[in-house]
Amino acid sequence: MRIVRQVLTITAKDLRAELRTKEAINASFAFALVILLMFSFAFDPQEETTREIAGGLLWIVFAFAGTLILNRSFARELPNDCLDALISAPIPGAVLFIGKTFANYILVFAVELVSLPVFAIFYGVHLMQHIGQLLFVLALGTWGMTVIGTIFSALTVNIRLREVMLPMLTYPILVPVLMGCMLLTKGLVNGQPIGPDTQDWLKMLIGFDVMFTAVSLILVDTVLVG
Amino acid sequence: MNAVAVDGLWKFYGDYPALRDIRLEAGEGACLALIGRNGAGKTTLLRTIAGFSRPGKGEIRIFGKSPRETETRRRMGFLGHGISVYDELSALENLTLFGKLYALPDPRRSALEWLERTGLERVKDGLVREFSRGMRQRLAVARAFLHEPSVVLLDEPFTALDDKAIAVLQRLLREGLDAGKTIVMSTHQLREALELASHVALLVRGKVAFHGPCTPEMVSDPGWVYARYGEG
């Protein structure tokens, strides 16, 4: 019970700090909106090809916009050496990691939820047809992105070029999760529910999330203290 | 049992040994002043004792246990170069946050109590980013002492403090020592530190050049240890 309270304390602290400054969430949302808008001018929403690539496009936007939030996750602790205070507190590294991952998840998911209707309007896709399944895929994909982003944010926090290093390190690892999300989303926004031909991707997404969450929990103390 | 025991500690940055075979101890209720020129290894030693990084060789024990154990961290307070409080949160929110992380029975009440003890109760709801340097440092002191640690590690605690903050810190440290807390502090402000110190350790290029009780000669002439054991 104490661990749950400590996780929620870290999550609440990160969300409160972010909502007061709105540094990452404003940048992330503005970026998502601009990219969606620009691509809508580049591709004709009425064309079949546009519908084919819509799922991929959406996840590219989410991956880039999410990185803006994830980059701030541990970097937020650098001013005033706040990370020292967290590391010296009697909480396991896993608590710190999960607390921060939850906060990042909420922020990234919020940006995605706001971007979805914009995407539907600009690209003429019908989200409501399989909205439950779409949100499920979104939830799984976002967790995978957030877990990887948070652990690498901890790893790169003391690197001078961390804004560059984080995407360079995370995107190659995120390839399977992004591929799965793109393929599943493409079908869902084109009216095809998840079926026998696509459910392997869903299983892969769940497996990826479970595996990388476990690995991150095991490694986080080493990442933070060395 | 010593509150802090450092035995044969080496710490490397790449191939460079920042700490070389450090052997130190501080008993319960002792105040150990770590002194030395810039780059002597004081901060590295304190951070390694605090468990922020692992030793290259050797061993650190806080009440006989590793500094990375949860129970040890509960008994340890650290105040480093940074104030380790969040600019975006208020003073009360900051202390309540750490009170919750240290699982204090009533984090808000402890936070209010420490804001009062450090003279910050009137600005408890003000955001830290709006505080003066002295106020920020007093809040940092409150954060380090909030959970009533048995061992307090302080890295140059008097640097850049105003008179009021120095007085608050010295009073808190005296009260802590009277209550049996162990204090290890690195400092360049020898006069303030030696008034409190029961023991002194001089670091020279990552090595302990002197470790012993604080004597009247040291208090009356803070440069005496450097002249006697240092490199001038």
Written overview of the protein:
The complex is a heterodimer of chains A (226) and B (232). Chain A is an all-alpha fold and 226 residues long. Chain A has one domain (2-225). Chain A has eight helices and no strands. Chain A has helices at 2-21, 23-42, 48-75, 82-88, 93-123, 131-155, 162-189, 199-225. In chain A, helix 3 (48-75) packs parallel to helix 6, helix 5 packs across helix 6 (131-155) and helix 6 (131-155) packs antiparallel against helix 7. Chain A is globular. The model of chain A has no long low-confidence stretch (mean pLDDT 92). Chain B is of the alpha/beta class and 232 residues long. Chain B has helices spanning 42-49, 70-74, 91-101, 107-117, 133-145, 163-178, 190-196, 216-220, 224-229, and strands spanning 4-13, 16-26, 31-35, 57-62, 76-79, 151-155, 182-186, 199-204, 207-213. In chain B, the strands form two sheets. In chain B, strands 5-6-7-3-8-9 form a six-stranded mixed β-sheet, with helices on both faces. In chain B, helix 3 packs across helix 4 (107-117), helix 4 (107-117) packs across helix 5 (133-145) and helix 5 (133-145) runs parallel beside helix 6 (163-178). The chains are: A mainly alpha (226), B alpha/beta (232). The interface between A and B is medium-sized, with 26 and 31 residues.
The description of the largest β-sheet of chain B is:
6 strands, mixed
User: How many alpha or pi helices of chain B?
Assistant: 9
Fraction of residues in helix of chain A: over 70%
Mean pLDDT across all amino acids of chain B: 90
Which assembly state applies to the chains in this document?
Answer: heterodimer
- Report low-confidence residues of chain A grouped into runs of 5 or more: none
Strand order of the largest sheet of chain B: 5-6-7-3-8-9
* Mean residue pLDDT of chain A: 92
Strand content of chain B: 25-35%
Structural class, from secondary structure content of chain B?
alpha/beta
Q: What's the β-strand tally of chain B?
A: 9
